[in-house]
Amino acid sequence: MKFRNFKMVSYVVYGRGSFNQLDEILTPHRNENSPMIFLVDHFFENKPLVNRIPLRSADKIIFADVSFEPKTKQVDGLSNQLKQEFGTISGIIGIGGGSVMDLAKAVSLMMNNPGSSADYQGWDLVKYPGVYKAGIPTLSGTGAEVSRTTVLTGPTRKLGMNSDFTPFDQIVLDPELTTNVPVNQRFYTGMDCYIHCIESLTGTFLNEFSKSYGEKALNLCQEVFLGEGEWGSEQDDKLMMASYAGGMSIAYSQVGIAHAVSYGLGYLLGTRHGIGNCIVFDKLEEYYPDGVREFKQMVKKNKIEIPQHITSGLTDEQFDTMIDVSLGMRPLWENALGSDWEKIMTRGKLRALYEQL
Ligand code: NAD
Ligand code: ZN
Questions:
Q1: Is residue 327 in a domain?
Q2: I need a labelling partner for 222 at 20 to 30 A (CA). Which of 73, 200, 266, 290 fits?
């Protein structure tokens, strides 16, 4: 048995208002004549947060358009633009949801690795460490702030750059930045965390490390999505920690069926990660009976509509594409169903599942 030797984020700051420490945090990482790049979710364009970014001399803010989730082309475009404009940079700071954090991680790596980011989609293909990178979530749930991957859609697949060079050097967890996230978005991204917990806690890869974080994250999700009272700062604080702990849980186990199936939707239809996971999880009673029952309570209590019939009218070829992408996520299936998973999840069975979505 070979145990995973798990590379973690190097520095973590947590607390309301901790964003104000960013200047102090970045100072030791500034190299003379090369700027810090702030890659900021386009949601914050013209919002007050932008004026709080500690810009020095040649620093630059780039607003990242995350109308679509990150693509290898977008990563290559950004890193080539930065190489042309500055040669090298001191670091890149991603401020936004999972999409922006993943973009920042990938651009950091591509500043120091040749070729296209598509060449590194997979496990441990990245050759050299990236430039300094920090992540500042403005949505809670994906766990992208702690993970060793950056999920990208490339020319032939949707797969992360998984490597020991991928985790951030620093994360700033300031729940204040998640105030006023629209209810639906907060729910979809929050459910990403809830689903991470269920998939990790019921998986065959489970161990005490994953369980400890997964149970804590699950409890926090239950408190915020099923608890009494209005949503407020306490819920934002808890959900940010749930995201972190959920990410730590899957880092030492794996996700499962909702993710494997949702990747197919994402690849073919561009369905976003959070909502896609909800659309799939809603139909997984057979595999996660308790989790799905509780999920439905959360949907009801928070008055969310989960989209239905999004695959109706697709061609056989399109179903095959989704099935290929999904079955390619072998570790996820193995975690969910054990080493005999291929006998259980046949193409026919998966097709029937996709047709229900
Ligand atoms: P997102 O980053 O795609 O953002 C969703 C929407 O919310 C965008 O329109 C964005 O502009 C907006 N937004 C961001 N912050 C906001 C705020 N404070 N208030 C209002 N709107 C805000 O959503 P997400 O669910 O955080 O991230 C999904 C992405 O994360 C996917 O690309 C997925 O593949 C990736 N992901 C990565 C990992 C990982 O380990 N690397 C894990 C899970 C998911
Ligand atoms: Zn996820």
A1: yes
A2: 266
